[in-house]
Write a structure and sequence with these properties.
single chain; 209 residues; mainly alpha; two-stranded antiparallel sheet; 7 helices; 53% helix; 5% strand
């Protein structure tokens, strides 16, 4: 017989605080997937960020390859840095050397060597500035513009052929996603073929002669 005042076997009270601890574990488990108010969803490891980053890096590899292939036919005439300079001239028209150097992020002497080689190849030419005859402006020859147009057309055609393989029902989502990505990076939307002359931001990239 149990002693008076002693609980029956199996009816003992739990250890003090045990129930509270168990409830705390349960609440912690239930709240493990919740994002605290004010938490940054773009912190490394946040859901979706790593996956999107990998996808964008893969696309960037593809675009670099497309751009390289589009220039392949003209490689016997110009190098990639020289083509960048042709692209700037095609987009901006005749320009001063210091402006070209600034856009290409090179010093003027480097830009001058690039221009000299393009002039020797018949792809660029010098003009006297009619507004200030002491200034020299640089521009494209017809052959230089033809090369820019051909390379740009090849790149556009290959990108269009890739897009054509995507189902029509998925293209709108692709446009929305790419537009959002460009806006997040501060890149203005390409409005026409003139803007499209800047493949992968080439005029902003460092160049070498």
């Amino acid at each position: 017989m149990a002693n008076a005042g002693q609980p029956e076997p199996g009816t003992e009270d739990p250890q003090p605080g045990t129930g509270d601890a168990e409830r705390g574990v349960d609440e912690a488990e239930r709240g493990a997937d919740r994002v605290e108010p004010g938490a940054d969803p773009l912190e490394p490891g946040a859901d979706g960020v790593d996956e999107v980053t990998r996808a964008v890096l893969t696309v960037s590899r593809l675009l670099v390859a497309v751009s390289a292939r589009s220039l392949a036919a003209a490689e016997d005439r110009v190098t990639l840095p020289q083509f960048r300079l042709l692209v700037v001239l095609a987009s901006r028209g005749t320009s001063k050397l210091v402006v070209l150097a600034d856009l290409l992020k090179v010093n003027p002497s480097t830009a001058m060597r690039m221009v000299d080689r393009l002039i020797a190849a018949g792809l660029a030419e010098r003009h006297i500035n009619p507004a200030n005859r002491r200034e020299t402006l640089l521009g494209l020859t017809e052959e230089g513009r033809r090369i820019v147009d051909e390379v740009t057309a090849r790149r556009r055609e290959e990108i269009a052929s890739i897009v054509a393989r995507i189902g029509p029902d998925r293209r709108a989502a692709l446009v929305e996603a790419l537009t959002a990505f460009s806006e997040a990076g501060g890149e203005p939307l390409v409005a026409d073929d003139t803007d499209a002359l800047y493949p992968l931001g080439w005029p902003e990239a460092p160049a070498r002669p």
